[in-house]
Amino acid sequence: MGAPQFIGKDPKLVDIKANNTGAIALVKNPHLHEQSKHIDISYHHIRDLEAKKRITITYIPTDQMIANSFTKPLERTKFEGFKHMIGLVDDGIEKRTRF
């Protein structure tokens, strides 16, 4: 990771990654407002932030969400994939066996 990935990006803009297409649609589609009046007014703040271009909401599949590696049990192949995503590398030390 590091600073180069942020060069040329607006530091005030927050990019939210989500895997819930329904939630993304509620934020991005103002025509759904009539159908979502039952949602508490405090939750509409995110819609306002997106309209003011303070945040962006981007869809990302669940299996690509890095945070999931910290919240869910993973099989070996997924663990290795997430390990690579966050930049962890093998240290070259011989792996120990479990006792």
Give the low-confidence spans. none
Count of strand segments: 2
Radius of gyration: 19 Å
The whole-number mean of residue pLDDT values reads 80
Which structural traits does this protein have?
alpha+beta, two-stranded parallel sheet, single chain, elongated, 99 residues, Copia protein, 2 domains
Quick summary of this structure?
The protein folds into two domains: 13-60, no CATH class; 62-93, no CATH class. It has four helices and two strands, in the order E-H-H-E-H-H.
Task: Give a description of the structure.
This is Copia protein. It comes from Lachnellula suecica. By secondary structure, this protein is α+β, with helices and mostly antiparallel strands. It folds into two domains: 13-60, no CATH class; 62-93, no CATH class. The protein has four helices and two strands. It has helices at 21-28, 45-51, 68-71, 76-85; strands at 14-18, 55-59. It has a two-stranded parallel sheet with strand order 1-2. The longest helix has 10 residues, at 76-85. The radius of gyration is 19 Å and the shape is elongated. The two termini are 35 Å apart.
